[in-house]
Design goal:
By secondary structure, this protein is α+β, with helices and mostly antiparallel strands. The protein folds into two domains: 107 residues, no CATH class; 79 residues, Jelly Rolls. Helices cover 19% and strands 21% of the residues. The strands form four sheets. A four-stranded antiparallel beta sheet has the order 6-11-8-9, with no helix packed on it. A three-stranded antiparallel beta sheet has the order 1-10-7, with no helix packed on it. The two termini are 22 Å apart. InterPro entries: HIF_prolyl_hydroxylases, Oxoglu/Fe-dep_dioxygenase_dom, Pro_4_hyd_alph, Pro_4_hyd_alph_FE2OG_OXY. Keywords: Dioxygenase, Iron, Metal-binding, Oxidoreductase, Vitamin C. Its cofactor is L-ascorbate.
Length: 189
């Protein structure tokens, strides 16, 4: 499922993620994929999907708690506008902001960077849904690449090609039902 949020939050999110991306490239002695932000939010600056060493990433300058909570509240608000429940009906409390404990910022440095075909949660670690929120303005998939390709289970020839359009938000199951890849990107996004 993909929908464009009714009120774009990108204008407030881009100034937050851009310095994180820039700072994470300058951390020495650390795999370039990871940097730690407030509330366990990790910044990834390459196409790696996991930390192969299992080591805890080095700290970056954290986002202020208030700023991070504001971003979370904005996204939870948009989810509610679409009728996506952020209330745990069993416990009766809001749990929407807990989603952000595992939030990632993925930046493709260009130069043909891509994700090979994979499943986000092959080990059933508790994640259920992957969401992607595109921040790249004026992206031209024909010249800059970066197309998301989904391979529905049981469909050998059918694929869904999804362009990384600014302010587009995607949701899909994180398990084996949605193998996907990101084709090479030739510009920073």
């Amino acid at each position: 499922m993909h929908r464009t949020p009714p009120h774009s939050r990108n204008t407030s999110v881009i100034p937050v993620v851009t310095p994180v991306h820039r700072a994470s490239r300058r951390i020495r002695g650390q795999s370039p994929e990871f940097g730690l932000l407030a509330n366990n939010m990790a910044a990834r600056t390459s196409h790696a999907d996991t930390n192969p060493t299992g080591a805890k990433p080095a700290a970056l300058k954290p986002l202020s708690t208030k700023r991070f909570q504001k971003i979370c509240a904005d996204v939870v608000h948009d989810l509610k506008e679409y009728g996506i429940c952020v209330i745990d009906k069993f416990l009766g409390r809001e749990r929407g902001s807990l989603v952000f404990d595992e939030a990632m910022i993925a930046c493709y440095p260009g130069n043909g960077t891509h994700y090979v075909k994979h499943v986000d949660n092959p080990n059933q670690d508790g994640r259920c849904i992957t969401s992607i929120y595109y921040l790249n303005k004026n992206w031209d998939v024909q010249t800059q690449g970066g197309l998301l390709r989904m391979f529905p289970v049981g469909q050998s020839t059918s694929v869904a090609n999804i362009e990384p359009i600014f302010d587009r938000m995607l949701f899909f199951w994180s398990d084996r039902r949605n193998p996907h890849e990101v084709l090479p990107a030739y510009a920073i996004r």
